[in-house]
Amino acid sequence: MFDLKKYRKKSPWILHYNAGSCNGCDIEILACLSPKYDLERFGVINTGNPKQSDIFLVTGPVTFRTRERLVELYTQMPEPKVVIAVGSCACTGCVFRDMYNVEVGIDRYIPVDVYVPGCASSPELIIDGVVKGLEILEQKTKEMEKPFKLFKEATTDDGIVNRRHSALKVGEDDAKD
Amino acid sequence: MKKTINIPLGSQHISLLEPVRFKFECENEKIIGVDADVGFVHRGVEKACTTSFKFDAIGYVVARVCGLCAITHSLTYTAAVEKLLGAQITSKAKYLRILLLELDRIHSHMLCLSHTCENAGFEAMFMRIMGDREHIMEIQELITGNRVQFDYISIGGVNRDLAPESVQKIKENLYIVKQKVQGYMDEFTNNWSLSLKFKGIGMLSLDDAYMYNAIGPLARASGLRIDVRNEIDYLPYHEVGYKMQTHTDGDINARNLVRLAELVNSIEMCENILNGLPEGDIFTKIKGKPQGEALMRFEAPRGELMYYIKGNGSAMLERVRIKTPTFSCIPAFSHIFLGGDYADAPAVLASFDPCMSCTAK
User: What is the DSSP string of B251-270?
Assistant: First the structure.
């Protein structure tokens, strides 16, 4: 059958969430999907379902009421996933930084892979960020597929093979290398 | 036994650009109750305007309330401050302000129309309108240097002059868009998925529009003749060829047609401004601190935008109050949903062209 992992890089699906932005970056993301910039030539398509998407585009500083939804959407997305913070507010909070209902950027709540600056980010920058995100997505996919050992070498004392202490914690062997 | 089911729409949904939650109470397919929750993107701009920014910087802060009508927000605030300071701005600056205001309206209406097409399942039309909208974005980038957040208007005038060599390019682009809009008119009146399907859906009668205080294209589509551009004398709208566009049906199709007619009118106004732009300075220096109260209204793409500011003679203002168009329209929105099918809800919602960033501030 199809090797799904092989095609993930060729057609990543986008989930877009507005966490309190001014709509400026959101209409620029829409403009990216339009014929002039045409993000769809990279196989990217905008979807509303977190369970089918690979790339998470977030705009806006996180307001108190959107942060639960933001984390919820992030956790619903399947691994591997890439988070792209679009716009200065999503990166640092920008002009909304000290307002009473606003956090300072989305990376307080979810890990961010690519930061796209600008107020509002131009479509060229957003496309650049998404292409960068695709590389990270491929790298993450490879990392997930890497085999890892579950057991240490068995020890031999008095001619008896002892496997009692051979269980390995996940990642312990990698950390040694 | 309970006979109704509750269906939520939002806060994150494919047909929504921004977080808003509607809770529909449905009996079979019919909607019998609506509950709207619009406060997801509340940031506290009004409070910050009185505590952390000085009055000459607020024009750029309030532009960040909404990216779609950024120019109207900064213009309304600036006009209110100029009223308090008793400033007179040059007529060239006034005309340039109208030019940007109308360009902003054109791109906002085109975005709304394309969104309506997308929600009708007409993806090709969505792409066509979005592609043509880029001509307008090019013009805006040419005039102001940025595509969305212009920061064009400052207290006393505008920040950039119109370069003589760019005028020709602007006229060409406007001509292209004008031709395309004529084509859309044909599609929106004759194409089955865009006209007949939308006729009689999401009705708002004239009486209801009056009673529920609808404004903007929503009210004008029901035949209510209300437009701030017709009522103010601060900007010379009547000199540049403003004509009010109304329709009598009050359904989704009528709203689309009103928007299309406004597009044509706005393009004509822009062409008139470019042809007869007066000579002179674009900026006059203004001194003083705002003292007293001022109230200013302007027509944003979605309806009347109102600013109330109160100064006490220092650099910090005492109060900035923003009343946004979508906020005033919410009672009318809720009324329209009642009695309709749930399946129509995304299309009806797109035809309102709601702006939640404005509403929640």
Answer: SHHHHHHHHHHHHHHHHHHH
Residue range of the domain that includes B134: 45-329
Confidence at residue B223, expressed as pLDDT on a 0 to 100 scale: 85
Chain A contact for B19, CB < 8 A?
yes
| B contacts of A40 (beta carbons < 8 Å) | none
Q: Determine the residue of chain A that is closest to B53 in CA distance.
A: A95
Cα–Cα distance for residue pair B301/B208, rounded to 1 Å: 21
Residue B39 forms contact with A (CB below 8 Å): yes
Domains of chain B: total: 1
Q: Which pLDDT band holds residue B217 (cuts at 50, 70, 90)?
A: confident
pLDDT in tens, A142-156: 887 777 666 777 778
**Given this model, what pLDDT does residue A173 score?**
63
Which CATH number goes with the domain that contains B196? Answer: 1.10.645.10
Question: Is residue A103 very low, low, confident or very high in pLDDT (cuts 50, 70, 90)?
Answer: confident
Task: Name residue, tokens 């017709």.
Answer: B230
CATH of domain A4-145: 3.40.50.12280
Residue-by-residue DSSP string for A95-115: GGTT-TTB-S-GGGTS--SEE
